[in-house]
Design a protein that fits this description.
By secondary structure, the protein is an alpha+beta fold. It has 10 helices and 9 strands. The strands form 3 sheets. Strands 6, 7, 8 and 9 form a 4-stranded antiparallel beta sheet that branches. The longest helix is centred in the middle third of the chain and has 178 residues, at 191-368.
Length: 468
């Protein structure tokens, strides 16, 4: 099969598809609130007469192209306000009849055909004006055939006559009457108002007459009742006096029994009431205690839950913070330890170097003393003797004594030494002896510097000489 044949087949398929779609587009469905009117060549009716249009309400129809066309007529009800004025009644009295009519296009086959012939293509306002003219004419006609009393008294008959006449005329143009509402009927002469006043006055007079008759009957009955009342009251009074005396005796006896029974009942009731009040208070206390206990348990549980949850959260926060702080402290301590280690290592190296130098100096000093360590120490002490004495003097240098007054009888103690000399000797003894300094350092003072006792005696001798 060649490409030309395929192209031809595709073209034929497209043409057939377009034709089908075009045919389907000519198939029209009628909504429920409209009437489909097909006009053009639509055939003949049963009598063989050619129809001007074909009406369809609900359903669908195929519109033959070229020879047929279509339109829709809206079935929406039309409200028409008819304000009829100066309509002449049968009694030649002019009346005003304001009313409202509701009409719509009919769906009956024959009347629907009339609508297609007379209303197709008209706007809603044009249909409303046409129907209003028909209604005004028929309304005037109905009023002209009825009297005012008949219109005012029998409103249903008036509305029925208006509906029948108006609907007959509306069917001729394809409309149907849906509702009639006459709001009020008035006349210029006030005849209708006078009829109303007459009816009201008649009703009032009839009511007054009926009231007067009832009052009369009531007065007669009241007089008879009073007479019978007086007779029966007198007889009753006589019997009542005798009965009263007997009744008083019984009343007194009954009163005594009643008071006795009331006292007994009051006593029992008071006791029972006290018992019930005590039980009620006890039950109230128990219930209140249980309620308070329940409330306390609930509050305690709530507080415990809040505290525990908060404590757990705080605990977790504290643990995380503590771990963070510990990590920071560990790192900081590690850094400080490393720094201290380096510092101490440097200091140790410096001390080691200094001690090495000192040891080397001491070695040379011992060598200079001929290898005798004791002599070397003596040389060092002799070199530092001035500094040591200076330290002893510094011990009492800063003692502030503005004035010392001494009353001394010069009798002294048991050894004959004056008290003042003993006081000064005690102050000198308070100075740390040189020998003690050497002992604290783990050494012994050289023998040529004297012993502790000799130093004390020398100091005491010096103070005596000063005092003498």
């Amino acid at each position: 099969m060649g490409p030309e044949v395929l192209i031809l087949i595709c073209v034929l398929v497209v043409i057939i598809f377009v034709c089908i779609m075009w045919v389907l587009s000519r198939y029209r469905k009628c909504p429920s609130d409209k009437v489909l009117v097909i006009y053009g060549k639509v055939g003949s009716d049963k009598d063989g007469q050619t129809r001007s249009a074909k009406c369809i309400h609900g359903g669908a129809a195929f519109i033959v192209p070229v020879i047929q066309s279509y339109q829709y007529m809206d079935l929406t009800p039309i409200s028409i306000n008819v304000d009829l004025k100066n309509a002449l009644s049968k009694q030649n009295i002019r009346v005003d009849v304001p009313s409202r009519f509701t009409v719509g296009i009919s769906t009956e086959p024959g009347i629907m055909q009339n609508a297609a012939e007379r209303l197709l293509g008209l706007k809603m306002s044009e249909i409303q004006e046409l129907a209003k003219d028909i209604i005004l004419g028929q309304l005037r006609l109905v009023i002209a055939t009825m009297e005012i009393e008949e219109i005012n008294a029998d409103r249903d008959k008036f509305l029925l006559s208006v509906s029948n006449n108006v609907e007959i005329e509306l069917k001729k143009i394809g409309l149907r009457l849906i509702n009639v509402n006459v709001t009020d009927i008035n006349d210029e002469s006030g005849y209708i108002e006078a009829l109303g006043k007459e009816a009201a006055a008649k009703a009032i007079n009839d009511a007054k007459k009926s009231v007067a008759e009832k009052d009369k009957d009531g007065e007669i009955g009241q007089a008879n009742a009073r007479r019978e009342q007086r007779i029966q009251v007198a007889a009753a009074n006589a019997a009542a006096i005798q009965g009263e005396n007997e009744a008083r005796i019984q009343v007194a006896q009954s009163e005594a029994s009643r008071r006795e029974a009331e006292a007994e009942a009051l006593k029992k009731a008071t006791a029972a009431e006290a018992v019930q009040q005590a039980k009620a208070k006890e039950e109230s206390y128990v219930a209140q205690k249980q309620a308070e206990q329940t409330r306390a348990d609930l509050e305690r549980a709530t507080q415990q839950a809040d505290i525990i949850i908060k404590a757990e959260i705080d605990k977790e926060k504290a643990q995380i913070a503590a771990e963070a702080e510990a990590e920071v402290a560990r790192r900081k301590a590690k850094g400080e330890a490393d720094a201290i280690y380096l510092k101490m290592e440097a200091q140790a190296k410096g001390i080691q170097e200094m001690l090495s130098k000192q040891a080397e100096g001491m070695r040379e000093l011992v060598n200079a003393a001929g290898g005798d360590a004791d002599n070397a120490v003596k040389l060092i002490v002799a070199d530092k003797l001035q500094d040591l004495m200076k330290i002893q003097v510094e011990a009492i240098k800063n003692i502030k004594i503005d004035k010392v007054t001494v009353w001394d009888s010069m009798n002294g103690g048991g050894d004959g030494t004056p008290t003042t000399a003993n006081f000064l000797a005690g102050m000198m003894k308070a100075v740390p002896p040189m020998n003690e300094l050497f002992k604290q350092a783990g050494m012994e003072l050289p023998s040529y510097l004297g012993k502790e006792a000799d130093a004390a005696e020398t100091a005491e001798a010096e103070f005596k000489e000063v005092n003498e």
